[in-house]
Amino acid sequence: MQLKGARIVLTGANGGLGRVLARELANAGAALLLTGRDPAALARIDLPAGCDYQLLQADLTHGGGIDSTLQAARSFGANILINNAGVASFGLLAEQDWNDVERILATNLGAPIRLTQALLPWLTQQPEAAVVNIGSTFGSVPFAGFTAYSAAKAGLRGFSQALRRELADSTVRVIHVAPRAIDTPINPPAVRALNRALGSATDSPELVARHIVAMLANNVAEGHIGFPERFFAWLNGFAPGLVDQGLRGKLAKIKQHATKA
Description:
By secondary structure, the chain is of the alpha/beta class. It is built from 10 helices and 7 strands. It has one domain: NAD(P)-binding Rossmann-like Domain (Rossmann fold). The chain has a 7-stranded parallel sheet, sandwiched between helices.
């Protein structure tokens, strides 16, 4: 897909991955409508000189935020939506506050579906368009300690696949990207400690952003970032019982760190 001259709505632009992804997209020649809940953080995004961009403060878990983003996207002439906004939470489900669970589901799954639905009538009128959903390896390999997050990301993957098939006769491409752990502030100290204890690899936001841009430019419909996570995603679909057995051996460490979250 042609990124030079593309007009992209990027949600969660003020986050660790969002800021880096905005720069990568700008370097590729795209114009950007950057949304986020924190206007001060949005204003601090560092973009290349001469980049065509706009900033929009919006909370996409509320109807007002969806409406304002829709209107801004239409005025901006957007032809690509990147659903990047997300929140994480680490802890055992039985010990989590239900408000936190609702926030995870609303931000990571409800908001992308709702914003995409609102924008589809506009996007389907464009000669070339795309919806890019930033998922997670946990959407393909659900993980203990991340139950609600895994559920939301699994839902986002299913949404992406179903929508891709629904729009197969349109000009809108649907792309799903599943990174493994990213070294950003979204991971609290307990998660960083767990990753070290389990020997789980963590990628830089720069590496992940480059993968996302490459997938969009090359029309790659779906992909996992990182190995062996890519293999385990395949294995979980083919033989989930084997993954159950493998993760059971890690459960004691997961529970140990979850109590510190």
